Amino acid sequence: MENKEYVAPWEQAFNRILTPIEEFIHRQTTSGILLMVCAVIALFIANSHWAEAYHHILKTPLSIGLGDWVLSMTVHHWINDGLMALFFFVVGLELKRELLVGELSNLKAAMLPIIAAMGGMILPALIYIGFNPAGHTFDGWGVPMATDIAFALGVLALLGNRVPSALLGFLVALAIVDDLGAVLVIAIFYTDQLNMMALIGVAALFLLLVSLNLGGIRKPLPYVLLGVLLWLALLKSGVHATLAGILLAFIIPIRPKYNPERFLNRAGQLLEEIRKNYRAEPNIIKNYTMRAKVRALETGIHRVQAPAQVLEHHMHIPTAYLIIPIFSLANAGVPIEWGELGETIFHPVSIGVIAGLVAGKFLGISGFVWLALKAGIGTLPPSLTMKHIVGASLLGGIGFTMSIFIAELGFANNPEDLVMAKTGILIASLLAGVTGYIWLYVNSVISKRAMQKV
After folding, report:
1. pLDDT above 70: residue 7
2. pTM given for the model
3. Percent of the chain at pLDDT above 90?
4. Residue 376 lies in a domain
5. Among residues 165, 167, 187, which one has the least CA distance to residue 175?
6. Which domain, by its residues, includes 269?
7. Contact status, residue 399 vs residue 355, Cβ threshold 8 Å
8. C-beta neighbour count of 243 within 10 angstroms
9. Residues 98, 84: one domain?
10. Are residues 153 and 296 in the same domain?
11. Over the stretch 302-338, which tens digit does the pLDDT of each residue have?
C-alpha cells in the first residue's frame, strides 16, 4: 500500500503566491458577497418585530475614559466614526500603493480609468442636483458619486471567467480614483464648524508622524499610537474623524528597512548556516544556534517588506470580513413602508440618488471613456471592448458603503431625508448590480457563440 504524505491546508498556503492586486481582488470579492448578505439581514431586521431592538442597540451609548477624560458616543457613531476610520486607513494604503506602484502609477496607462472615474463622479452629482437644486435636500449631492468596489467585484466574481481579467483591473483602478474623489468631497464639503485649536493639534501630530517617517522609524506601533491621537484630534476638529485613516496611511513608510539585495545576501548566508547546524542537530528545540539563525532570517523577512505593504496585508482581513459587514448591518436597515413605496421612490432625494447612480454612472463612465478614445487619450487593453466598459459603467452604479457613509454625513440633521437617500442607494445598487450582471453575461454568451461559428 502506497503511503501518501498528508499536506495540511496551511502547508499548501505556504506554496501559494498571490500578487498584491490578486490578494486585493480576492478579499474585496469575498467582502462584496458578505456585504450583500449583511445588507439583506439588516433590511429584514429593520422591517420585522426586531426593528425596535435593532434601533435601540444602535442608539445605546458607549463610553471610554481615563480619570476625568471620557469619550461617549452611540454604538452607531462608534461604527461610523471609529471602525470606519480603519476602513479609510486601508483605502488610503490601497490608494498609496496604486499611485506609487500599481495601476495608477503609469499616467498614460491610468488615463482611461481616471477619466472614467471623473465622468462617474461629475455626471451623477449634476443629475442629483437637477432633482434637488436647493434647500436641505441639496446636501446629498455627493451621495451618488461613489462606487462600492467590494460590491462591484462581488458581482464580477459571479460571472467568473466570462469576463476578461483586464476588466477587473480597469474597475479596480476606476473605483480607487472614485474613492479618492469621495475622500476629497468628505474632507472639503462635509465638515462641521471647525475647531481651530483641535486643527492645530492635528497639524502638530501630522508633522510628528512625518518626522517619524523621515527619521527612518519602521515599527508600526509609534504610528498606531499617534494615529489614535490624530483620530481624537480630528473628532474634535469638525473635520470628519475617519479622515485620520487616510492621513495616517499616506505617512506609513512605503520603503523597507532592508533593500532586497542586502536581504538576499544575508538570507543566503543564514540558510547555509542553518543547513550546517541542522546536520549537526536536526531537532530545532535542542539546536539553539539553528533557532537563533531562523529568528534572524524571520527578522530579515519582516524588514525587507515595506511597513505599508505589511499593514495593508494584515488589515484587509478584519476590514473586509468584519468592519464592512458591521457597517452594512448598522446602516442598511431601512424601514420600508410598502403602502408608501411609490411616494418614497419618487421623493426628490430618492429619485436623485437612483438616477445619479444608475443613469449618471452609466453615462458618465462609458460616455467619458468613449470621448477619451475618440480624442486619442488612452487606449483600451486588447481584451476589452466598449461593451465591457458599458458593463463596468453599470456596475459603477453600485454605491452602497461610501454612498451610505456620505448620506449619513449629508443628512445627519434630516432623518427623513436620510431614509430616502438610503432607500435610493439600495434600489440603485440592486438595479445597477442586476443590469450590469445581465449585460456582461449576455455579451459573453453572444461572443462565445460568435467564436464557435468562426
Report:
1. no
2. 0.78
3. 30
4. yes
5. 167
6. 260-300
7. no
8. 22
9. yes
10. no
11. 777 788 888 887 887 888 788 888 888 888 888 887 7
Residue 360 predicted with pLDDT over 50: yes
Q: Is residue 232 a part of any domain in this protein? A: no
Pairing of strands 61-66, 69-74: antiparallel
Same-domain status, 249 and 174: yes
What are the φ and ψ backbone dihedral angles of 32, each rounded to 5 degrees? -60, -40
Number of domains in the chain: 2
- Residue 216 placed within a domain: no
Q: Which pLDDT score is estimated for 10? A: 36
* Angle between helix 288-303 and 260-280 (nearest 10): 160
Distance CA 402, CA 143 (A): 8
Cell digits for 277?
547546524
CATH number, domain with residue 315? 1.20.1530.10
Whether 217 is covered by a domain: the verdict is no
Residues 386 and 270 occupy one common structural domain = no
pLDDT in tens, 258-292: 777 878 888 888 888 888 888 888 888 888 888 88
Same domain, 175 and 113: yes
Is the same domain home to 370 and 326? yes
Least Cα distance to 33 among 320, 404, 389 occurs for 320
Query: Who's near 188: CB < 8 A, 6+ residues apart?
Result: none
Domain shared by 294 and 332, yes or no: no
pLDDT of residue 369: 94
- Three-state secondary structure string covering the chain: CCCCCCCCHHHHHHCCCCCHHHHHHHHHHHHHHHHHHHHHHHHHHHCCCCHHHHHHHHHCEEEEEECCEEEEEEHHHHHHHHHHHHHHHHHHHHHHHHHHCCCCCCHHHHHHHHHHHHHHHHHHHHHHHHHCCCCHHHHHCCHHHCCCHHHHHHHHHHHHHHCCHHHHHHHHHHHHHHHHHHHHHHHHHCCCCCCHHHHHHHHHHHHHHHHHHHCCCCCHHHHHHHHHHHHHHHHHHCCCCCHHHHHHHHHCCCCCCCCHHHHHHHHHHHHHHHHHHHHHCCCCCCCHHHHHHHHHHHHHHHHCCCHHHHHHHHHHHHHHHHHHHHHHHHHCCCCCCHHHHHHHHCCHHHHHHHHHHHHHHHHHHHHHHHHHHHCCCCCCCCCCCHHHHHHHHHHCCCCHHHHHHHHHHHCCCCHHHHHHHHHHHHHHHHHHHHHHHHHHHHHHHHHHHHHHHC
Say if residue 284 is in the same domain as residue 413.
no
What are the cell numbers at 372? 477619451
